[in-house]
Amino acid sequence: MAPITRWLLVQVKCGLLGRRAACFSGKVKMMPLSMSEREATVEPLLREHFWEKYGEHPSGDAIKRSFIFKNFDVAFEFMQKVATKAKLMNHHPEWSNVYNKVDIVLTTHDAGGLSKKDVEMAQFINEAALQHGVKQPNK
User: Fold this and answer.
1) Staple partner for 69: which of 17, 32, 75, 103, CB 3.0–4.6 Å?
2) Which residues, by range, are in coiled-coil regions (predicted)?
3) Is 118 within 8 Å of 63 (Cβ atoms)?
4) Where in the chain is the domain with CATH 3.30.1360.20?
5) pLDDT level of residue 35 (50, 70, 90 thresholds)
6) Structure pTM?
7) What is the CATH number of domain 31-131?
8) Contact indicator for 101, 66 with CB cutoff of 8 Å
């Protein structure tokens, strides 16, 4: 590809994606949420949906939540649903499963912290958990 064609392709791609993405060598890198975006999107997850701030994460800031289901089968069905969404989004959670409990951590490694992808994934996870009969923790 000619250098000018490559440059033009990068400019078009970056322009279409808006200010939340930065372009490097033709690749799109996610950007961390701004303070106003955090207040509008992350704070409700913390206040209303039982997510918590993850202390020191190697990739920057992160959120976490534990989910308790009726049994292992339901927990595994929930994980399969989340895995399908993660594959479509190309955004994979850090998680662990022991019997009926699933622990999930969300962060965007290449953004150095939370991004819009984490918020979208957390919202999807909340809905999927409700569909699978998650036991809500006490506030």
Assistant:
1) 75
2) none
3) yes
4) 31-131
5) very high
6) 0.79
7) 3.30.1360.20
8) yes
